[in-house]
Amino acid sequence: MAMTNLQDLFIHHLKDIYYAEKKLAKALPKMASKATEEPLRSAFEEHQRQTEEHVKRLEQVFEQCGQKASGTTCPAIDGIVEEGEELMKEAEKGEAMDAGLIAAAQAAEHYEIARYGTLASWAKMLDMGDAQKILHKTLEEEKQTDEKLSKLAMQQVNRKAA
Ligand code: FE
Ligand code: FE
């Protein structure tokens, strides 16, 4: 697809994050099953539910653009998920696995935060107020998830010190 203006760029990135969200919705249950500590497991389960909601919200934005919802391969999220899969194969269950899972999940959240931040700004520039609100809502949830993961990592550090 030729990207000649901001509208084209917006749609392209919408397809990119749509692909990424669907990929993450599939990866999160596996991450939950590998988590050792209960709070981490339930954080992944909760974010899996949020991620399904993010997919639906993107479908609303596609609709507002008069576009059929569809994804385009996102090599960045493929790489992040692949790293996570390698880790799940190689890390020993327990502390190392949990620390690695948090690191992998934060890489994914940071990618999403970058994408949603940009998409929300572009929606504003394109005078798409409703889309901007929807994208911003998801952006806030991704940020909260990232903070929660940071707290879980700190709790792990503190448990170790105790
Ligand atoms: Fe998401
Ligand atoms: Fe997320």
Q: Could you report the average pLDDT, rounded to the nearest whole number? A: 96
Please outline the major beta sheet.
none
Which kinds of small molecule does this entry bind, naming each only once? fe (iii) ion
First and last CA, distance: 56 Å
Quick recap of the structure?
By secondary structure, the protein is an all-alpha fold. It is built from 5 helices and no strands.
Overview of this protein structure:
The protein has 162 residues and is mainly alpha-helical. It has one domain (6-161): Ferritin, core subunit, four-helix bundle (Ferritin, Up-down Bundle). It is 84% helix and 0% strand. The protein has five helices and no strands. Helix 1 (6-34) packs parallel to helix 3 and helix 4 runs antiparallel to helix 5. The radius of gyration is 17 Å and the shape is elongated. The chain starts with 5 loop residues before the first helix and ends with a helix. The protein binds fe (iii) ion (2 copies). The site of one fe (iii) ion (FE) has 6 residues, from helix 2, helix 4 and helix 5.
Q: Which key terms come to mind for this protein?
A:
5 helices, 162 residues, binds fe (iii) ion, mainly alpha, Ferritin, elongated
Topology:
Blueprint: H1 6-34, H2 38-64, H3 75-90, H4 95-125, H5 129-161
Helix pairs in contact: 1-2, 1-3, 1-4, 2-5, 3-4, 4-5
The structure holds fe (iii) ion (2 copies).
